[in-house]
Every structure is written in C-alpha cells, then in structure tokens.
Specification:
Elements lengths: L8 E2 L4 E5 L5 E5 L1 H7 L2 E5 L6 E2 L4 E7 L3 E5 L4 E6 L9 H4 L8 E3 L13 H12 L1
Antiparallel strand pairs: 1-2, 2-3, 3-9, 4-6, 5-8, 6-7, 8-9
C-alpha cells in the first residue's frame, strides 16, 4: 500500500500539495505515482516566475518505463524549483514527500484548494486504480 500522509491535499492526477506557513504551497508527486513510474532518470521542471493554471502540465518526469506529465494542482506562480532533482531525480523515488518535492508556488486563488482531495478520498482513487 502506498504512503498517503494525512497533512497533505491531493489531486486525482497524483500530485500532492503541502500548504506552508507563509501561504505558499509545495508540490510533488505521490508515493503511488513514483511507484507506478519506477526508477526516475530525468525531471523537467518549470522556471521560477512561470505562471501556472490548475490542470496544465507543469513538469515532466521520466523513468526507465515512460515519461509522464505532472499537472499543476492549483493556479499560481512558480517561486522555486527543487535544484537537487537535476542531478538526483531518484530523490522522488526515495523520498516523494520530503527531499523529492518538485516546486514551490504561490496560490492565485485559495478556493482551488476545495477541488483537491483529502487523504481518504485520494486513498480511494489509488484503490480504484489498483483495481
């Protein structure tokens, strides 16, 4: 069973959001997603300052199996990307909720948080996909 931390919000497309105390959000992909992708070998991240619209492709993660888009779970602006991933994309496999974060962003409209899933709802999404 995949790890699903209780303090995060989730998108149906397997991104997670951690709301930081400064009103920013940290974004990554879930343990389930990294496990389904397999060993990651490359990550393409957006540029700081880029404007995001919820649902748009924001990054690409490539594994030995396939390349997969990562979608913006909220609208806002990229403040920072994880510089460690350029040389160590496997951090996403090793620690998807910690050192493997993808980006930090400002949130344009906090009402978008209402569209995200709580851990129980996300667990059901994973269960449905696992069949």
């Amino acid at each position: 069973m995949s790890e699903i931390p209780a303090d995060l919000k989730y998108a149906k497309t397997h991104e997670w959001i951690r709301l930081d105390e400064d009103g920013r959000a940290t974004v990554g992909i879930s343990d389930y997603a990294q496990g389904a992708l397999g060993d990651l070998v490359f990550v393409e991240l957006p540029e700081a300052g880029e404007t995001l619209t919820a649902g748009d492709t924001v990054a690409v993660v490539e594994s030995v199996k396939a390349a997969s888009d990562v979608y913006a779970p909220l609208s806002g602006e990229v403040i920072e990307v994880n510089p460690q991933l350029a040389d160590a994309p496997e951090l996403i496999n090793d620690d998807p909720y910690g050192e493997g974060w993808l980006l930090k962003m400002s949130i344009a409209d906090e009402s978008g948080l209402d569209d995200l899933l709580d851990p129980d709802a996300y667990e059901q999404v994973v269960a449905d996909e696992e069949g």
